[in-house]
Write the structure tokens for this entry.
Amino acid sequence: MNWIEEAIQNLLIKGEGEIFSRIETIGSNLEIDGTEAHAYCYGLKLDGQGNPRTKDLIEFVASKLIDYSIPKKLQDEAKEQLNKTGSTSKIIELGKRAKHLFTDLEKTGEFGEILLYILVQEILELPQLISKMSLKTSGQLHYQGADGIHVKFDETDNSLSLYWGESKMEQTISSGLKNCFDSLKSFLLDTYGHDSTQTRDLHLITSNIADNLNNPKLEDILVRYFDLDDDLSNKLKYKGVCFVGFDSKNYPKSPLEKNTKELIEAFQLEMSKWLKSSGNQIKKHQNLEKFEIHLFLIPFPSVQEFRTHFLKTIAI
């Protein structure tokens, strides 16, 4: 394995599959006709009483706040202190800092952003390059830019793939898909230049890369891919990762109404419509269908209830 590939993979923060006790596969790595995109569809599992594991999933997502929002350098320092002294004080301090970074705006999309982060790391195994949350100046503000930035190195041609992330949680899948690809298109289709959509994010990557990677050798080589005066910039490839959450009436309204198998079968009957709608929204943007895009789709009992409970959970 090339040292760059190995160093990038060392950035991966991957669990032991805990999320799959909370979500069930509806369909995975599905081709979206007429595009280079693939879909990954999941539904919430039902517990033994037939209730969706809604709050449990939210609390699991909230447990990843430090992983998602705190720069790796600070995480490494906290782990070092724990190993050296046995004290968890720095880790607790990082937990408080992470909570303060999240907005308490009622319509926050940050639950979707952190869920996208988890899915990309757990399923695609693409590490996060930079923590966008650490760039916020206030919990009352949203960071303007991509919802996530993940990375992969290909030693066959020494190329670096940058995966721009977008997440949307809306009442309908159609509006979620539309707004998702309306946002993603600029990151993939804009050409290089001082006024391109990606420029601000690329500047933020290079100026904050030391805190986020904590690996000087890797930092030096990656910065060259983002430097337009360096020939390695011609080997920087743009790809996409997306998450769309939407409301569904398939979830049971009362206990013991159905089990997980019956729920997933109901979703599978709708899946072809999801894929067709996804392809139509991608092809509304000329040339977007040529790009590698990984799309995660998850129906929820209520996306608004998820937002509300997420904010209550991280406020504790």
Q: What stands out?
A: Residues 260-283 form the longest helix (24 residues). The chain has one domain: 3-315. The two ends are 43 Å apart (CA to CA). The longest strand covers residues 159-170.
